[in-house]
Amino acid sequence: MIVKEAKFVTSVADKSKLLCSLPEIAFVGRSNVGKSSLINYLTNRNKLAKASSEPGRTRLVNYFSINDEMYFVDLPGYGFARVSDAEKERWSDLIEGYLLGSSRLVNVFVILDIRHEPSELDRMMIRFLNHYRIGFTIVATKMDKIKKSLVAKHVKMLADSLYLTTASILPVSSETKQGKERVLARIEELLAAHEEAAKSAAGEGGETGE
Ligand code: GTP
Ligand code: MG
Questions:
Q1: pLDDT value at 206 more than 60
Q2: Which residue, judged by its Cα, is nearest atom 15 of ligand 1?
Q3: Domains assigned to the chain
Q4: pLDDT by residue (tens digit) across 23-36?
């Protein structure tokens, strides 16, 4: 996929106001893991999504339209310790409300830090997605923080700890701009499969049977 145009569309604070006009790829993960930075890297824009070294930057569900054909959805991070319990609850309600309520969700990109084993919250997120049969993809970011020779080893560590294949984990760095091609290719595949499934569900894409 080539990103020709990327625009901020809207921020939503309430699960009753979610958009439903285009297919969506959502970005979830621990606070500060690099979700917003990844959206900026994928779209070749420095400041499309607000990224910051201060955890808890993204507090709403943010929609970015890509080539007027899909949305990237940037979600608040989980696991940020320095917010009140009430605020944590509001964020997790919003994340869960989004994941269960968005009618055009194609796939969830779970962003992990390539350096570390998935946290208990990451595992909970993956269990949640499996439970509700929501398709997901692991993107392992901050690969610039480890030696190039160790990337494959870290990908294997993540794959083993999540019972996934190494091929299903996509290493990237938004800082040194590495790994985008595989992520964009995966998005293209996911969108094509989603469209195909929608067509056959609508009875247009199947065989004629004659
Ligand atoms: P929340 O909105 O708080 O959930 O965080 P986020 O997951 O959107 O993280 P964000 O993109 O704001 O990045 C957090 C910090 O990590 C920033 O200081 C980024 O510059 C840095 N960062 C993000 N991706 C990378 C990367 O690939 N490599 C390095 N070295 N730093 C990164
Ligand atoms: Mg963010």
A1: no
A2: 53
A3: 6-195 (3.40.50.300)
A4: 999 999 999 999 99
Compute the distance between CA of residue 123 and CA of residue 127 in angstroms, rounded to an integer: 6
Q: Is the CB of residue 34 less than 8 Å from the CB of residue 174?
A: yes
The protein residue with its alpha carbon nearest to ligand 1, atom 12, reads 51
Q: If we measure between CA atoms, which residue out of 10, 4, 13 comes closest to residue 97?
A: 13
Listed residue (138, 100, 101) closest to 118, CA to CA? 138
Query: Which uninterrupted H or E stretch holds 140?
Result: strand 136-141
Question: Is 62 near ligand 1, meaning CB less than 6 Å away?
Answer: no
What's the half-sphere exposure (Cβ side, CA atoms, 13 Å) at 43?
25
Is-contact 64 71, C-beta < 8 A? yes
Buried b (16+ CB within 10 A) or exposed e, 88-123: beebeebbebbbeebebbbbbbbbbbbeeebbeebe
CA atoms within 13 A on the CB side of 185: 6
Rounded mean pLDDT, 148-158: 98
- The residue with tokens 């199947």 is 206
Q: Whose CA is nearest to atom 16 of ligand 1?
A: 34
CB burial of residue 210 (10 Å; 0-12, 13-18, 19+): exposed
Query: pLDDT value at position 136?
Result: 97
Ion ligand 2 contact residues with beta carbon within 5 A: 35-36, 57-58
